[in-house]
Every structure is written in structure tokens, then in C-alpha cells.
Amino acid sequence: MNDKYSSAKCAHYGRRLAARLCDQYFAADPAAVLDGPALRDFAPLRQINLLVIKQLLGEWQSESRRLRSAYFDFEAQPVQAALTQFMNVLSRHICLARAAFEPLLARAIADALGLVATPTVAFEHIFLPADGDGPVPAAALRENLRYLDLDKDFYDGFLDALPADGLPRPDLLERLTLYRTANYKLHQPVQRLVSELSNLLPLTTADLLEDGPVATPSSAGLSPAPTAGPTTVETPAVAGPIATAEPTAAAPVAPPLVAIQPPAPTSAAPTVAPPAPSAPPAVAAAAVPLYEKLKATQSQSPGLAQTLRESTTPAPGITERTAPKIETLREAISINQRFSFINELFNGENLDYHAAIQHLDALPTAAQAHAYITEHLAQRHDWSRKEEHVGKLTKLVERKFSGN
């Protein structure tokens, strides 16, 4: 209870482990994408998968809220019913490439560690809305419990102690600190989770202490991969919808997902099965679990920096205009691109992304847009190693001004 763990070091480990897991999964086919069932079974720790799904659900709901117009009544009951049906269909067509998925995975790992190492920081990320300091009703907070597998009883007890109408953010965080001090025996020891994660990428509790050492890639087994080895990555083959159940509580409610095969190097038709929430996951007997594969190749996976260097291509100049003109960046950027830009270029900050796109749309010339990207955005968000994503954004800006 006297140990002080660093949320920054939890985040650092989350990024490294996310890179390793993605290296393993996408090695055979860097262009592969993840669907819903693949997300539910991606990591061997259920808590990580739940937190990835929670982030994705947040984006899913945010997309729904942004469907508004000054010309139409989006609050009308038939419109709301149609929107609900549309978003339900959309939720069954999850399509995550590595660029969009890896930041979600990194944050999920960091938050999973934070649940037991830095509960106050994790509570703020997982339970509280991104903006606003007003009171958060206890019922709204309680909905987040379905995404917890670690320390669920601890957080459940804390929410029981809150008033029904909730408390402002600062008071909630202060109350959580006091509750943890009084009920530390209900808290899962950090060492237990650290031991499980260390099977995937070496980690000790000392690595997470505020005054402890920072693990280096060499100490974590992030050496370059050998030239010889298997040409495919074995992933669990899903025969039906994956449903996980807690020993003492109901499984979390998430958007309905189509159960199809995880992506492989060769194309295959998706396997669609009717939802069966109560059915246990069916995994091919011959498939090797991801975490076992990782343990066997722990010292052979390439580092994140090497992976990025190999996949990065120079960004084209803003004067190159080959694609059709677009009217606005906001409408031209797809959902997948938006995920990628927010996570890779704006460090996961939705508001920063939307403010930047709105400003770029309002600029009158390509020269001003180019200056805003290179002199303001690139400096503020440190895009020195984000050539690939900056290049994609720049191409869209080129298309917007192609007729000027």
C-alpha cells in the first residue's frame, strides 16, 4: 500500500506490449484487419480485450451523436429508431487495421495495469466522461462495471458508497483515494497481474515504481526477428460467436458482433453464425494460443521503432494533386482514417483532432493549410516520426485545394 506506481510507466509498458502483440498478429499480413470476434479473443487477458471493446464502443456512440443537422429533426422518434438500427448494423462491421487498433490496445493494457497499480488514474480514464466536471450519476458510473474483470468487487463497493445523484469529478477522485486506503485488502495485488503480463513481455513491479528503473527494449526481449521462421501466424480459429463469462457475474454487454474468422494472409469468405451469448468460445484444437506463441518467440520480435521504419514512406508534397477534389476534410475522412488520425497524430484526443480539421477546412489556400500543418500541428503534437499518417492527411488537403 505504500508503493507508489507510475501511470506513465504503465502507459510505456502498454505501448511496448501492444507493439509486440501487433507484431505477432500482423506479421503474416500487415494489411490484415480485425473484426469483432477477433477483438474479443485477441489478448490472453480478458481485461485487456474488454477495455479495447469499451473504447471502440465509445467511438461508436460518438459517431451516433454527431449525426445531427440544422435542416432535419434527428430527435423525431422514427429517426431515432432508424439511427439505432443503423448503428447496430454498423457495430457488426468492425474493421480495424493495425494503425487504428494498436493505440487502443496500448491504452487498454495501460488501464488494465492502472486498475490495480494506479486506481485513481484508471478510474478517471475508464469511468468518467472525457469532458466536464459536473456530477456524474452513480447509475452512469455503474454501467462501466461490465467492462471490468480485475478488481470488480473493489470498484463495485466504491460505487455503492456514492450518493445516487453522484459527485463532481474532483470529489469522486478524492473519495476513491480515501476508499482505497480504507479497503486496500479488497484490492488485487499488483504482483499477480504483473506476473501474468510478464509471460507476454518481461515486467516486474519495480519497473512500475515512480522511482524505479525504466525497462529498455533490450531488457524486454525486443530484439530483431530472425530471417528464418514460420511464414504464417497461428491465431485461434473462431467457429462461432465468442462469449466469455465471469465466474461470479454476467458477461459484459457489448454491441452485437458478427463472428467471422480472424484475418489470415490468404483471403477467405467470412463465416457468419447466429448470436449465441451463452455459448463458450470454440477454438480449433490445433491452433496455438497467441500468448504461447509469444513466449516461444519473446526474444525474436522486432522493436517498434524498426517496424515503423520499415513501413514508413515519405510524405508527398502538397503540390502533388492526382486524386479527385473533395469539398471538406470532415466529410472526406472515413471512420477508419479518423481513428488512425486521432490516435496516431493527436494522441487520442478527439477534441484536438476535430478542432484541427475544422480549422483546415476554413483556410482559403493550400499554402496556408500547408503552413498550419508543418508549423503548428507538427510542432505541437510532435509528428517527427509520423510520416505515413502525415502523408495521408496531406494528400487529403491536396485534394481539397486541387481546383484552386
Any overview of this molecule?
The protein is mainly α and 404 residues long. It folds into 2 domains: 290 residues, no CATH class; 86 residues, no CATH class. The chain is 50% helix and 0% strand. The protein has 18 helices and no strands. Helix 1 packs antiparallel against helix 5. The longest helix has 20 residues. 30% of the residues are buried.
Summarize the structure.
This protein has 404 residues and is mainly α. The protein contains 18 helices and no strands. It has two domains: 7-296, no CATH class; 315-400, no CATH class.
How much of the sequence lies in strands comes to under 5%
SS-based class: mainly alpha
Low-confidence stretches: 216-287, 297-321
Query: Portion of residues in helices?
Result: 40-55%
SS elements, strand count: 0
Shape category: globular
The SSE order reads HHHHHHHHHHHHHHHHHH
- Oligomeric status of the shown chains? single chain
Largest sheet: none
Comma- or semicolon-separated keywords:
404 residues; mainly alpha; 18 helices
Layout of helices and strands:
Elements: H1 7-26, H2 36-40, H3 46-65, H4 77-91, H5 98-117, H6 119-127, H7 138-142, H8 152-160, H9 169-182, H10 190-198, H11 205-208, H12 290-296, H13 304-311, H14 329-332, H15 335-345, H16 350-362, H17 366-381, H18 387-400
